[in-house]
Amino acid sequence: MSTSGGANRRDFLKNSAFGAGGFLILASGSGAKAFSYAANEKLNVGIIGVAGKGRVDMMGVAGEQKQRDKPRTFNGENIAALCDVDEKNLASGVADFPKAKQFHDFRKMLDEHGKNLDAVVIATPDHTHAPAAMAAMRLGKHVYCEKPLTHSILEARTLTETAAKMKVATQMGNQGHSEDNTRRIVEIIRSGAIGHVREVHAWTNRPIWPQGKDRPAGSDPVPNYLHWDLWLGPAPERPFIANKFDKNGKEIEKIYHPFAWRGWWDFGTGALGDMACHILDASFWALDLKYPTAVEVLAGEPRKPDNGPMWEIIQYDFPARGEMPALKLTWYDGKKKPPAELFEGERVPNGGSILIGDKGKLFIPDDYGRRHILLPKAKFADFKNPPETIVRSPGHHKDWVEACKNPARPACSNFSYSGPLTEMVLLGVVAFRTGQKLEWNGPSMTATNCAVAEEYIRPRYRKGWEL
After folding, report:
1. Domain that holds residue 34
2. Fewer CB atoms inside 10 Å of the end CB: C or N, the chain?
3. Distance between CA 423 and CA 154 in Å, rounded?
4. What per-residue confidence (pLDDT) applies to 365?
């Protein structure tokens, strides 16, 4: 998962006299260019989506350094190209990296400037993740992509397979996967400290954006700074509608751009898609979950055809895995939470998870796995952590950058891991949208009892935006 292009960098280093000297030459996947990485050479990185989380990722890859009363400095990679459909967002990125080439269409960026790029960072709305990532990987570019990795299950499988074929370094932006404590949680669960886990509960206070809505009628003029057709990308055409303001200029309703796109099925994946790749990460990793056999919506707001619900409760059934028993995983969003008695008096925060074993419980009271509490506390008062068996991360963005340069160390949460995690998460979205309990065949990506699920598993694209 950590080479750049068609040639295998690991084999190259084994067979090349230059390998020990820290110099590497590679053919790209398209055969159009040879990449060269000296020991301390900077990657040329293109950023697709430069505002919000994209800005955080951009600064992380660039190695932004802040010191009181001193100018910012950058000691990371070279930000060589910036792409955003919103010219205001693009201008903010250019202010920080004035030498970067500017684009509004990532397809044009890759076509015209791809030969000058080693890697791309993708932080766009969910529905454009896969088209951008596929276009980049086909050119042999390394890819960092925000969560959820994709907008559909087929896209997640396709990205996973393409990353392996192209041997590029990949990573999904579920930052908690890089936390030392997430790795400690996995080690504790695998040590058997709480016994066999047969039950997991996970929850979030999201959505914190509008959901449970019908598609708005009418249309508004597209702002002169927004390339609306590019913003729509592979999604079906629809008119632009502006956010609503009161007579005093205060925003009172968000519609599409910015931010509120997450609630619309054409562009986002709701609260489940937004947060489960964070909150379920430790459980998915520690318990080797992969494919559920069934997914069912236990409760939730009445379904709307275009928009996600304000709340839902979804149950995933997983089969036995080796010595691990069958497991039920229950997801709650919209401020719904598991029964209070599960937590033995502990305060239940807005987001987190709890793994219930036959010898105890492990409570994760945050979204990113940064803390954990073993319950009951009295039983685990003298608990000693098991030995460290998982390599600690140098930091989420740094981990990916190092993988781009070093084929011997794949990035954490690379697509071979984050692809299946995303498939599992998005299956809950499919179950909600169909309104049926799904019997799931993971390898074939088929809901064996629900033909209508196919349109959500394998979506259609507007012409020019196909994978």
Report:
1. 9-176+402-408
2. C
3. 8
4. 98
Given this model, what pLDDT does residue 67 score?
Answer: 83
- Please indicate, yes or no, whether residues 81 and 145 belong to a single structural domain of this protein: yes
User: In the structure encoding, which two tokens stand for residue 320, read together?
Assistant: 């036995």
Scanning 98-216, the segments in alpha helix (DSSP H) are: 106-113, 129-138, 153-166, 180-191
Residues 379 and 304 in one domain: yes
Rounded-to-integer distance, Cα 200 and Cα 25, Å: 47
- Quickly list DSSP for 44-77: EEEEE--STHHHHHHHHHHTEEEETTEEEEE-S-
Helix (H, G, I), strand (E, B) or coil at 314: strand
Contact indicator for 21, 129 with CB cutoff of 8 Å: no
pLDDT (0 to 100) of residue 30: 37
Long-range contacts of 7-14 (CB under 8 A, 24+ apart): 8/167, 8/407, 9/167, 9/407, 10/407, 10/408, 13/407, 13/408
Q: Which helix (H) or strand (E) holds 228?
A: helix 228-232
pLDDT of res. 40: 72
- The CATH code of the domain that includes 87 is 3.40.50.720
Residue with tokens 């997801």: 331
Residue-averaged pLDDT of the chain = 91
Could you tell me what percent of the chain has a pLDDT over 90? 87
297 φ/ψ angles, rounded to the nearest 5 degrees: -85, 115
447's CB contacts (< 8 A; 6+ apart) are 430, 434, 438, 439, 440, 441, 453, 454, 457
Helix/strand/coil percentages in the chain, nearest 5: 30, 20, 45
- The whole-model pTM stands at 0.91
* 207-214 average pLDDT score: 94
Same domain? For 78 and 185 the reply is: no
CA distances from 287 to 209, 272, 315, 356 (A): 31, 20, 16, 12
pLDDT of 9 above 80: no
Task: Label residue 15 by pLDDT band (50, 70, 90).
Answer: very low
Under 8 Å between Cβ of 295 and 437:
yes
What does the DSSP 8-state code read for residue 176?
Answer: G
d(CA 225, CA 91): 10
Residue 350 has pLDDT above 50, yes or no: yes
- Residue 213 lies inside a defined structural domain of this protein: no
Question: What is the count of structural domains for the chain?
Answer: 2
Of residues 276, 318, 302, the one with CA closest to residue 147:
276
* Secondary structure in 3-state letters for 331-372: EEECCCCCCHHHHCCCCCCCCEEEEEECCCEEEECCCCCCCC
pLDDT score, position 96? 96
Q: What is the spatial distance between Cα 43 and Cα 401, in angstroms, rounded to a whole number?
A: 8
| 407 secondary structure, DSSP code | T
